[in-house]
Amino acid sequence: MAGPSARAAFELQDIGTTHDLLALLDSYQPGYLVPMLRAERDLARARLAGQDGAVAFSSALSGLRELSTPYHLAGGLLDYAEYLTRHGDVAAAAQATDEARDIARRLRCQPLLDRAADMAPAESRMRS
User: Fold this and answer.
1) What average pLDDT does the segment 21-35 reach?
2) What's the whole-model pTM score?
3) DSSP, residue by residue, 22-35
4) For residue 120, what is the DSSP state?
5) To bridge 85 with a disulfide, which of 67, 69, 93, 97 should be the other Cys (CB 3.0-4.6 Å)?
6) How far is CA 85 from CA 36, 66, 68, 97, in A?
7) Rounded CA gap, 48 and 42, in Å?
């Protein structure tokens, strides 16, 4: 699956492989790429977008909400929260993290809960 592989490559800071995997996903003819992989492709592009990421993340999250699973949506929300934190929007990052945490609780998905806990500011962790 090129979508999750693109995430792994990005997390390993292998940007060349991330771009190669995006090119692989882009090579499919319209209609041959399942909706979830289209949403994951858009999310991978958003992670690479840098300063222009807000629009890319908005589009990617819309796709994840419409076309993907709750698990993938939570992962995308945490990616977005990381982006927001890097760009100084702590309140919006906390909101995205809270939504992801709610999804993770419903799914009983400890890896997502752990990732959300790692991202939360210290005062938020005290409230949990």
Assistant:
1) 87
2) 0.82
3) HHHHHTSPTTSS-H
4) S
5) 93
6) 26, 25, 24, 11
7) 10
Asked if residue 127 has pLDDT above 50, the reply is no
Question: Between the CA of residue 110 and those of 27, 103, 107, what are the distances in Å?
Answer: 35, 11, 9
> Would the pLDDT of 30 be above 60?
yes
Split at pLDDT 50, 70, 90, the class of 78 is very high
pLDDT at 107 over 90: yes
Residues 6 or more apart whose Cβ sits within 8 Å of residue 35: 63, 66, 67, 68
Please choose, from the candidates 127, 80, 72, the residue with its C-alpha nearest in 3D space to the C-alpha of residue 104: 72
Task: Say if residues 42 and 60 touch (Cβ distance below 8 Å).
Answer: yes
Neighbouring residues of 67: CB distance < 8 A, sequence distance ≥ 6: 35, 36, 38, 39
